[in-house]
């Protein structure tokens, strides 16, 4: 279990000068706050009982500490949760009865929202939908717990219950005394405004088994330094863009904007190899069945009774992988098209064998940035990849050019832990644009 504690109002731990308050303590600045709690977490990580908690992430102490921003976020079970609840929680008071009707209305919120779309995730829930539940059941300052937080939309929702414009965008009215009213229909069919909640942030505790989820959630919870971050991040991206100009020079010059890579297949009838894109493309559409360019037999990625096509075989290349630093057997791919920009002119050009050869040596003598080299665990989906496309390691999900650029960007250190973390949040949010796409498709690099 990796946990992620969020104090959403005081959580503006952006780099700022001057003293900061955290869990009732005052620190000269935010870096000192992080240093203090990192020391406690470092000691805690040495406690074997702590590490025995089921689902404790596989990772070295140094890696867990480097990711964490305690007490707000720890990339492991969060040992500060009890302190957080002691500081912010309100003990149960039997003299104040709590009673709410079950929330039974239909909730439907669109997904066309900038906050929602800042980072994708499976079965992500729009924060506006969650806000309706939080407003219905809780008071400002209450602690809300989501033990399966994913990207932390519950944390975003808890925080935005204190944002007047966001609450009004739900169709509610906010009175001067912070009372929130919602429209109801009375017995005469007239709309009446009834009080149902109060404006004010709630405090969220978010937890998830996946360290990636809590990493995303912790960044979602604190966008407080976005203005200074954006400025710094844009300057950094321009610097890296210049440094990596060699990587994005097209086969015939210009700056590469996008590229198409194709599978290479082997004809089971004549045993000749060919580039799928070159053989199957007709009138700008990839054909399911087409004649082998060498022997004319009808072939396809899948056999077809209708066209009589036989299923193509996949040839593998064996060679030294500079990232895994070992000899690997990988499915053959070929760069077939590049779209480049020179000044204001854009052009798309087919790449032939000669062009591909010119790319082979471009990484020679270059120092590679850090690249994850983990192998996929066996599983229903991963086995499909491993056995189908021969993709067995994380790094095989990317072209070498994408890996080099992604790795270079990932290792950039910004002026504070918060900014570095937000930068990586942005990089992970565009992972789907960087990674390989099956069944063709245009790659951004
Ligand atoms: C459906 S997703 C939640 C998505 C979230 N509502 C959002 O908007 O992003 C469910 C989450 O539960 C997590 N999960 C699954 N089993 C878990 C467990 N035993 N303990 C904690 N988290 C778990 C998964 O890692 C996943 O992130
Ligand atoms: Zn053939």
Quick take:
With 445 residues, this protein is α+β, with helices and mostly antiparallel strands. Helices cover 31% and strands 21% of the residues. It has helices at 30-45, 48-51, 61-67, 81-88, 127-137, 153-160, 164-168, 211-220, 226-243, 276-280, 353-359, 380-389, 400-410, 417-429, 431-434, and strands at 2-6, 20-22, 25-27, 143-146, 173-174, 179-185, 191-198, 203-208, 255-266, 273-275, 281-282, 285-286, 289-291, 298-300, 310-311, 316-321, 326-331, 333-342, 345-350.
Layout of SSEs?
Blueprint (H helix, E strand, L loop, with lengths): L1 E5 L13 E3 L2 E3 L2 H16 L2 H4 L9 H7 L13 H8 L38 H11 L5 E4 L6 H8 L3 H5 L4 E2 L4 E7 L5 E8 L4 E6 L2 H10 L5 H18 L11 E12 L6 E3 H5 E2 L2 E2 L2 E3 L6 E3 L9 E2 L4 E6 L4 E6 L1 E10 L2 E6 L2 H7 L20 H10 L10 H11 L6 H13 L1 H4 L11
Parallel strand pairs: 4-8, 14-15
Antiparallel strand pairs: 1-8, 2-3, 5-6, 6-7, 9-10, 9-18, 11-12, 13-14, 16-17, 18-19
List keywords for this structure.
19 strands, binds S-adenosylmethionine, globular, 445 residues, 15 helices, 21% strand, binds zinc ion, disordered N terminus, alpha+beta, disordered C terminus
Radius of gyration: 27 Å
Number of strands: 19
Largest sheet: 4 strands, antiparallel
Distance between the termini: 36 Å
Overall pLDDT metric: 90
> Which cofactor or ligand species appear?
S-adenosylmethionine, zinc ion
Shape: globular
Q: In what order do the strands lie side by side in the largest sheet? A: 10-9-18-19
Strand content: 15-25%
Portion of residues in helices? 25-40%
- Class inferred from helices and paired strands: alpha+beta
**Poorly predicted ranges:** 1-14, 439-445
- Please report the number of helical segments: 15
């Amino acid at each position: 279990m990796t946990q992620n504690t969020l104090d959403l109002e005081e959580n503006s731990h952006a780099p700022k000068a001057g003293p900061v308050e955290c869990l009732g303590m005052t620190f000269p600045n935010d870096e000192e706050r992080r240093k203090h709690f990192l020391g406690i977490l470092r000691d805690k990580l040495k406690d074997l009982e702590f590490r025995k908690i089921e689902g404790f992430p596989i990772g070295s102490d140094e890696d867990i500490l480097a990711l964490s921003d305690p007490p707000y976020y720890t990339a492991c079970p969060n040992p500060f949760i009890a302190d957080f609840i002691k500081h912010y929680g309100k003990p149960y008071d039997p003299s104040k009865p709590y009673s709410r009707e079950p929330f039974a209305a239909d909730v439907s919120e669109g997904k066309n929202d900038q906050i929602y779309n800042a980072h994708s995730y499976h079965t992500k829930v729009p924060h506006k939908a969650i806000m309706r539940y939080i407003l219905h059941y809780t008071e400002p300052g209450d602690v809300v717990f989501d033990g399966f937080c994913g990207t932390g939309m519950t944390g975003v929702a808890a925080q935005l219950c204190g944002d007047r414009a966001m609450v009004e965008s739900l169709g509610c009215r906010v009175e001067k005394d912070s009372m929130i009213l919602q429209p109801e229909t009375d017995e005469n069919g007239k709309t009446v405004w009834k009080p149902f909640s109060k404006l004010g942030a709630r405090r969220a505790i978010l937890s998830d088994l996946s360290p990636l989820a809590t990493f995303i959630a912790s960044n979602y919870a604190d966008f407080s330094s976005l203005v200074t971050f954006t400025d710094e991040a844009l300057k950094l991206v321009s610097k890296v863009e210049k440094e990596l100009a060699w990587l994005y020079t097209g086969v015939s010059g210009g700056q590469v904007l996008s590229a198409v890579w194709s599978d290479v297949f082997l004809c089971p009838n004549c045993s000749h190899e060919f580039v799928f894109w070159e053989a199957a493309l007709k009138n700008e559409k990839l054909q399911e069945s087409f004649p082998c360019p060498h022997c004319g037999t009808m072939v396809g990625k899948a056999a077809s009774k209708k066209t009589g096509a036989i299923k193509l075989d996949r040839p593998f290349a064996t060679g030294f992988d500079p990232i895994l630093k070992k000899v690997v057997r990988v499915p053959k791919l070929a760069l077939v098209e590049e779209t480049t920009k020179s000044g204001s002119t854009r052009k798309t050009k087919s790449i032939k064998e000669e062009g591909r050869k010119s790319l082979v040596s471009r990484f020679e003598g270059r120092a590679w940035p850090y690249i994850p080299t983990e192998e996929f665990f066996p599983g229903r989906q991963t086995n499909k990849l491993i056995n189908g496309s021969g993709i067995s390691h994380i790094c095989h999900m990317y072209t070498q050019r994408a890996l080099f650029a992604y790795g270079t960007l990932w290792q950039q250190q910004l002026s504070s832990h918060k900014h570095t973390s937000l930068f990586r949040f942005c990089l992970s949010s565009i992972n789907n644009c960087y990674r390989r796409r099956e069944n063709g498709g245009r790659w951004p690099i």
